[in-house]
Specification:
Elements lengths: L1 H10 L2 E2 L4 E2 L4 E2 L3 E3 L4 E2 L4 E2 L3 E3 L4 E2 L4 E2 L24 E3 L4 E2 L4 E2 L4 E2 L4 E2 L4 E2 L7 E4 L4 E5 L5
Parallel strand pairs: 1-4, 2-5, 3-6, 4-7, 5-8, 6-9, 7-10, 8-11, 9-12, 10-13, 11-14, 12-15, 14-16
Antiparallel strand pairs: 16-17
Length: 145
């Protein structure tokens, strides 16, 4: 773990204290992670991605910040390149379950929980629990929200 943390500090834009990075994690450009956060086994985090403090990413989470272009029907999609990068922001105290897919431009609010296997295509409100494909609001963690 100390070796992974050492290399993360070299490649990440910002690395907090007490960060845990499991094995086989892939990082993209402009990656940031806050204090006491963890990234699970075999996760793919293609930057720019900013992860706050006290965040738990389960195993095999995939975060994408761009997509393949497909708007030109007379050109094969493989030759069209990529869309513009849209950063992903994950605020503090968030729990993201196993095999969650987060799409470009998504902002996950403080205290949110994302159920395992969800596909997050839209912003997630603070303290909400979301799940499904596409992820939908299930309930709030607090009654008074």
């Amino acid at each position: 773990m100390k070796i992974r943390y050492f290399f993360l500090k070299k490649i990440a834009k910002n690395t907090g204290k007490n960060v845990n990075i499991e094995q086989y994690v892939v990082f993209g450009e402009e990656f940031e992670i806050g204090d006491n956060s963890t990234v699970g086994f075999r996760s793919d985090l293609y930057g720019p991605v900013k992860i706050g403090r006290d965040v738990m990413l389960g195993p095999e989470v995939a975060i994408y910040t761009h997509n393949h272009r497909h708007d030109e029907t007379d050109i094969p999609m493989i030759q069209q390149g990529y869309t513009e990068m849209k950063p992903v922001y994950i605020d503090d105290d968030v729990w993201i379950g196993r095999r969650v897919l987060i799409m470009p431009g998504v902002h996950i609010g403080t205290g949110a929980i994302i159920a395992a296997g969800s596909v997050v295509t839209k912003n997630v409100e603070p303290y909400s629990i979301v799940g499904g494909n596409p992820a939908k609001h299930i309930k709030y963690r607090r009654e008074n929200l």
